[in-house]
Write a structure and sequence with these properties.
seven-stranded mixed beta sheet, about 350 residues, 12 helices, alpha/beta, globular, homotetramer
Chain lengths: ~350, ~350, ~350, ~350
C-alpha cells in the first residue's frame, strides 16, 4: 500500500485527445503520481469513464473547465495537452500560482517568440519571458535543466526521434552540419484524435504519402535545437514526413555526410553506446540490427541503429519510437519524474508486447 | 469481336507467384495478347482455376513443366516470372527456338555477368552473351531498344521508381551524381508470395522498419543504369528500403544536391513535364501536390512530384507506383506492347479505384 | 471510336463522397455513359480535378449547385449520391422534368413512407407517391421492374449482400423465415468519406467491434425486402454489423434453420447455381470454398458459398462483395445499364487484381 | 527488492512461437515468477536475445533441448507452448518428476482420449490417464480445480471467448442449448508465428474470409466444455471463425434463443455482473456499449456485452479479448497464479494503451 502522502497531484488539461489520454493512462499505473484534476473544453461535465470506457475506472473525476484557481487547488503539477496556441493562454496563470507545468504543445519550444511566430503565425502573445524561461524537455540532453524547471516544453515525436539520432553525431563532430536529411515515417495517431478526412482509415489505409515536404513546421524547431543542444554552428535541415497506414509508431531515417570520412558503423555505434549508456529510455542496437517501430510500441524507449556507406561517405541513423509515449505523453511523465527526483523511468513501460 | 488471328500467344512461366499472377490477370483483359501456356514447378498438373479461384476461369489451362519445345509450340512470346538465377537456365533455350522473352528476374539486368555475380553470387552461368544482348526494360528511357529486342530484362519496383525520379535530373545535369539518397517504402507484396516469417501480417502489421541498409542488392543495378541511361559519370547511391504495413504500393523519396543551386521546383517540374510529355504511364504532378501510392494502386502509372529546399540546395523527387504493375507485371506487358508495336498502354489500367 | 451520338448523358449529384466518386470513376471507363453534370453542395465551383487528383482529368467539369433545370439541360439520367433525407428533396423535381433517377440513399427504399419514417425519423415528406413508385434496385431479383423504372432506389452494401444470400433460400422454402441471423463485417469506407472520429485509422485500425446490434436501421429494410422478393410471410431478422480494419469489402455470414432438415450443402449450392446461372455479377463458389472479400475487391461481383451443419440443421451462406461497387456505385451503373437496355455488366470490372 | 527466495522457477518450452514469447514477456515483469529454463527445438543453442531483440535482455538463457531431467533441475513449473500432439510426448515425464504443468496446446483439453483423436487424429497416445486428470484451465469457471492441479490444459482464444459468453447463460438456463451460433473474428497472430502463405500480410491484408466453417476442430472442445461447465445437456454448436486483417484481438458474437423469451438485455447483464463480480479478468459492459478488441488489447481482460432482440427472442453476447493474452499466455499465467495461491491477476496487465 502506497501512502497517500507520497503521491504527487497532477492535473491533465486536454484529456480527450491522444496526448491527454495517454498521460492519464500512464499515471493510472504510476506509483507516485496521481491525476487529481481533468480539464478540457468540449467535454466539460462528462465523467472520465464516458470518454474512455476502455480505461480502468481510475480517477473518479469529471472533466472541468481549466480554471487556474481550481487547478491550483487540486494539483501540484500540470500537464497541458492542448492545441498549439492554446497552452500559452493558460500556462502563465498556472505558473503564477506556483504550479509546475509540462506542456506538450509547440507554444514554448522556441526560446525566442519571433521564431515561434514565424512558424506558427497567429495572434500576439504577451508571454515572451516564459518562452525564454521554458526548458526543452528532452531528458537525454537536458536533464539538469528539466530537474529544476518550472515550465518544460516537451518536444513531440518528430523532433525527439530526430534529435536522439543526430545529437551524438553533432556533439562529437562526426557529421557535417550541412545537407542533413531526415526522412520520417509516422503512424496516423500522430495527427491527433480530432476527425480529419485524410486520417480516415479509408483514406490513409493501404497508402503511403509524403506531406509538408517544403518547410514543415517542425523543421525550424529541430534546426534550432540541433544547433543548440548539438553545440554546433547554425544549420538547415531537409525534413520529410510520410504518413503510414498504422496506428502508432515513428521511424526516422537520418542521413548525413561523415565529417571524418573513414569512420565505420562500429565506431559510431560505440560512440552512441557511450552517449546513451546511462539513459534508461534509449537503446542502441548492434550494427546490422535495424529497429522496427514494433519493438518500441507502447513503450517509452527509443531504439537507435547506425549504418555507414563507405562508397559515399554517408552515415545513416535509424531511430524508432512510439509517437504517443516517448514521442509525447511518456516523455512528459519522464520529465515529471525528473522534476520530482524520482527514478527517471518510474511508471513507464520499457518492454513491448510483441507482436 | 476480335479475330483470333490478331491474338499474340504468350507463355507465362512461374504462374503462382505474384508476378505471374498479375501477368495472367492483365492478359485476361488484354485485347491482343492471350495466355496460351502456363508453366511452373511446384504446381505442375494443377488447373489454373485452383491456383486462383478469384480470377475469371480465363485460360482453360493446367500448369505444365516449362519445357522449351512445348513452350515454343504454344507461344510466340514468353514472360518469365521465376526466382533469381532460374530464368537464366531457361531463357537461352527459348531464344534459340525463336521466342521473344521478357524476364522479370534480375538475371539479365546486368550487361556484364561479373557485375551480376558480384551482387547475386551463385553458380556459374554460360550465358554471358545473352547478358550483353539483353535490353533493360524501362520503356520511358529505352523504348527503341525494347521494340526490337529478343530478350528484355524488366527492372523491378525499386529501380523503376528510382530511375523514373532520377534520370530526368541526371540527363539534364540538374543534380550532382554524388551523394544521392533513395529512401524507399514498399508494401509487403514486393517480397513475393512465398511464406516467410517477416512478411506475416502478425509481424509486418502495425510496424515499419528499414532493411538492407548497407549494400542492398538493387543498389548496384541502379547505380549502373543511372549512369548509363542518365548519361553521366559512374556514381554511387545510398538506397534504403523500408517495409510498410500495406499490401501494394511503393514510394521512393529521392534526395540530391542541385547542380545549379538556385533551381526552383517549378523549373524542374517543367523539365519533368517535358521529359514525360508523351509517356502514357508517367504523370508529373503540380508543385506542392505529393503523390500517394493509393493514387497509383492497381494501375500501371507512376506519379512524380518535385520539391526543392532553397536553404540546403537540395532537390527532392517523390515517385509512387504499384509495385506489382508498373513495378513488375504491368511493365512486362508495357514492354510486350512495344515489342509488338501495339499502343504502349494497351490493356493496362491507368486510373485507380479510390479509395 | 465511339460516336458521341451513342453516349447517354449522366448527372452525378454528390460527387465528393465515395458513392459519387466511384460512380464518376466507373463512368470514366464506361463505353456508353458519360458524366455531363457534377452536382454538389460543399464543393460548388471547384474543378473536379481538385477533388480527385488521382482520377483521369476525365470530365472537364466544375461542381455545380444541383439545380433541376440545369441538370435537365445537361443530362438524361441522374445518379443521386446524397445523405439520407436529401435525395427526396431533389428527386421529384428531376422526375417531373423527365429525367430518370437512380438514388443511392435510403429515401426511396421503403414502399411505404411510414416505414421509412419509423426508421429514419426526420422531417415531413410530400413525396409519398414516389416512394410507392420507386423500384428496389437489386437487379438479380428485380430486373424487369428496373428496366422500365423512372426512379430506382439502389440497396446499399448490407442489404445487397444479405439479400443475395437469403433470397434463393426463401424463395425455394429451404429456410425457416424465423430466427435468421446476419452477421456482417464491413470495411470502414462503408461509413463514407466525411470525417468522423470512430472511422479514423488510429481508432478503427487494429480493432474489430460490433455496432448497431439492436435495431440497426438497415434491418427493417431487409425484413421488408426479404419478405417481398423472397415471397414469404413477414419475418424479423437479427442483423449485427461489425466494423473491420480494412478499406473496402463486405462479408455477410447468414445463418438460418433449414426447412427440410436433411438438405446438404451440395444440394443447396446446386440450387444457388440455378438461381444465379445468368447473373453476370454473382458467382456461386464450390462447396468448401469460402469467399474472401479480396476476391471481390474493386469488382462488381458478389461471391456466394453455402455450408450446412448436419448436427444442428442449420444452413450458413457466406456472401462477399465490394461495398463501394456491387454494394453501391457499381450497382447503380448496373441499374443504369438495365434501364438503357445495355448488357448488364457493361463498363463494370468483374475480375480483381489480387492481392 | 524482492527476495530470490520468493521467486517460483518456471520453464517455458516452445519459446520462439507467439505463445512462448508472450509467456516469457509476461514473466519478465511478474514479481513472483521467474523464467529459469527455455526449451525449444529449432532454435537450440541460440541465446534468447537473438530470438527476441525487442524484449529486455531479461533471462540470460540459451534455448535448450527440453530434456525432462534438465527441466526438473531448473524449474518448479512448466509452461508448454508446443504444436498440438507434441505436448503429450513431454508432459508425462515432467509430471513424473514432480513438476506442475500448464499446457497451451489441445493435447489435454479433452477428458477422453477418443474425443481428442476424433478431432485431431494422429498417432497413438499412451497417456489416457493424464487426459482424465488434466484440469481445463478456464479460471472463471474452474478455479478450485486449477488451484490444486498438477496438469492444466489451458483453452485457447476461441473457446475462452465463447465459453465466457455462453456459460453464464447455460448455467442459469437462460438460453436453449440448441441452435447456438458462435461467429468469431480473429487477428492473424492466432495462426501462430510459423510462416504460412494465407497469413502473409499481402494475402490477409485488406480482406476478411471465413474458414473451417464445417466442423472446425475447436467446435467439439467447446461443445463438451459448454455442456460440462454449463451443467446442461449435450449440445451441438455452429462455430464460424473469420480471419481479419489485424495482428491481435478476438471477437466472438454469440447468438442463441432465449429460454425465457421476454428476458431483457438489462436483466441478463445483471446476471452477468453477478457471475463475474469477483473475476478480475472479466468485465461486463453496460447495455448498449459494445466491446472493441482494442479495449482489451495487450491486456488479460475479456470484455462482455449483452443484447437481445425482442422480435426474434434471441440473445446476443459479444465477447472481446486479446487472443495472445487472455486467449493464450495470459491465461497460462493466470492459472500459474492460482496454482501458487498468488492474487489471480499478479503480473497481468488489465488496462490497454489506447489507441
Amino acid at each position: 500500500m502506497v501512502s497517500a502522502l507520497l503521491l504527487h497531484r497532477v492535473a491533465v488539461i486536454g484529456a480527450s485527445g491522444y496526448g491527454g489520454l495517454q498521460t492519464v493512462r500512464l499515471l493510472q499505473s504510476h506509483p507516485r503520481l496521481q491525476v487529481t484534476f481533468l480539464g478540457g473544453h468540449g467535454s466539460v461535465g462528462r465523467h472520465w469513464r464516458e470518454l474512455a470506457p476502455f480505461l480502468d475506472p481510475g480517477p473518479d473525476l469529471r472533466v472541468a473547465q481549466p480554471d487556474p484557481d481550481a487547478i491550483a487547488a487540486a494539483a501540484d503539477l500540470v500537464v497541458l495537452s492542448l492545441p498549439n496556441g492554446r497552452a500559452s493562454t493558460l500556462a502563465p496563470a498556472l505558473l503564477e500560482r506556483g504550479l509546475r507545468v509540462v506542456d506538450l504543445s509547440a507554444d514554448y519550444r522556441f526560446p525566442r517568440l519571433e521564431d515561434w511566430r514565424q512558424v506558427y503565425g497567429g495572434a500576439e502573445r504577451a508571454d515572451a519571458r516564459f518562452c525564454g524561461e521554458a526548458v526543452y524537455g528532452l531528458p537525454e540532453f537536458n536533464r539538469q535543466a528539466i530537474a529544476t524547471a518550472r515550465l518544460v516544453a516537451c518536444p513531440g515525436c518528430f523532433p525527439t526521434t530526430s534529435l536522439l539520432a543526430l545529437l551524438p553525431l553533432l556533439q562529437a563532430g562526426l557529421i557535417l552540419p550541412e545537407g542533413i536529411i531526415i526522412d520520417a515515417k509516422t503512424g496516423t495517431s500522430g495527427g491527433g484524435r480530432e476527425a480529419r478526412q485524410h486520417l480516415l482509415l479509408a483514406e490513409a489505409g493501404e497508402a503511403v504519402a509524403p506531406y509538408g515536404v517544403e518547410g514543415h513546421r517542425h523543421t525550424r524547431e529541430m534546426e534550432i535545437q540541433a544547433a543548440t543542444l548539438g553545440r554546433t554552428r547554425p544549420l538547415r535541415l531537409q525534413f520529410t514526413p510520410h504518413l503510414l497506414p498504422m496506428v502508432r509508431g515513428l521511424l526516422a531515417t537520418v542521413y548525413g555526410q561523415l565529417a571524418p570520412p573513414g569512420c565505420s558503423a562500429a565506431q559510431i555505434t560505440s560512440h552512441f553506446l557511450d552517449t546513451y549508456r546511462h539513459q534508461p529510455c534509449v537503446e542502441v542496437l548492434p550494427v546490422g540490427v535495424y529497429p522496427s517501430t514494433k519493438w518500441a510500441r507502447q513503450t517509452n524507449r527509443a531504439l537507435l541503429s547506425v549504418a555507414t556507406n563507405p562508397h559515399t561517405g554517408q552515415v545513416i541513423v535509424m531511430a524508432a519510437l512510439d509517437n504517443l509515449l516517448k514521442g509525447q505523453a511518456g516523455q512528459a511523465v519522464q520529465c515529471l519524474n525528473i522534476m520530482l527526483e524520482l527514478p527517471e523511468s518510474t511508471g513507464l513501460p520499457l518492454t513491448p508486447f510483441y507482436p
